[in-house]
Amino acid sequence: MFAIYDIQGRRFRDTLENLRKVEKINDGGRARSSDKTYEGEQRPTPGTTRAESGGVPVSNNAVHAYREMLRLNRREPIFHASQLMRYPVSTVIMDMGILAAQRYFHQQGLRQMPVLSAEQRIVGMLSVEDLMQYIVIDDGHVRYVEGKRVADAMSQHVITADPVSDVRRIAQAMLEYHLHSVPIVDEMDTLIGIVARSDILRALMNDPPLNMWS
Fold this sequence. Notes:
By secondary structure, the chain is α+β, with helices and mostly antiparallel strands. It has nine helices and twelve strands.
């Protein structure tokens, strides 16, 4: 399940298919559904798997030996956001000043963070690029516009996912909506984690049982 939050709170919670109905996708960035791509593909017969180059059958013994070499058989497959998300999540609050937010970004080494209200509810997303619009070059010196807060710079429109959301669906939403990260929010509207593109790529490298292609 996916949701949309803004400064007024949650205004949508439903499937990715229904998200597309309320949230327009930029046609230039729309990705093809990996589920549909593989829907009609011929499955390997039991006892063999097919190599990607030429569809050459590979014995299960060879696959087992390869997994033993990488110790893949000792890992559990990754299916859900809760298995992949990072937590606790670094966040900023709406009333934080722009300069204080920039310093916090630098301290955390991050380029994007969720924004929380005083009630600890997610109300926006803030990126380094959002902060850059409040930079002023004055007589050769770089400074930030005074009197501006995170609430002035943040994107007041956040697409989130449930902790049980399929990681493939999250990856698909990232591609379709050009998202760098997806906050993970539970049914009580509490931010409990975040999944970034780098988390999915890292899992693909380090956790081959990641359930991306089945």
